[in-house]
Amino acid sequence: MVIIYQAPEKAVSVINPAPDFEDRMDELAQITVPKGLKYKIVANSTIPTDLTFRDAWEVDEAELTDGVGA
C-alpha cells in the first residue's frame, strides 16, 4: 500500500513506506501528508510503472477520500 496526494505544484506525490513498516497507513499519512491536503491509501499496483511522465501524473481531488494531513 502507498499514500497519494495532490501536491500544490499539481504533481501527485506518492509516499511509499519502508518494506518492514508494520504500523497503520492512516497514522503514517497523518504525519507525512502536508497539513490540509487530502490523501488516499491505494494498492501499489495503482501507481504507473512507467516513470517517464511522472511529473504529469494527476489525481481527481474527489478521489482523495481517506483523510486530510494533520
Describe this structure in words.
- It is a single chain.
- By secondary structure, this protein is α+β, with helices and mostly antiparallel strands.
- It has one domain (about 1-70).
- The protein has one helix spanning about 25-30; strands spanning about 1-5, 10-15, 40, 65-70.
- The longest helix is centred in the middle third of the chain and has 8 residues, at about 25-30.
- The relative contact order is 0.34.
- The mean pLDDT is about 90.
Top keywords for this entry?
70 residues; alpha+beta; four-stranded antiparallel beta sheet; 4 strands
Itemize the secondary structure elements and their pairings.
Blueprint: E1 2-6, E2 12-15, H1 25-32, E3 38-42, E4 67-68
Antiparallel strand pairs: 1-2, 1-3, 3-4
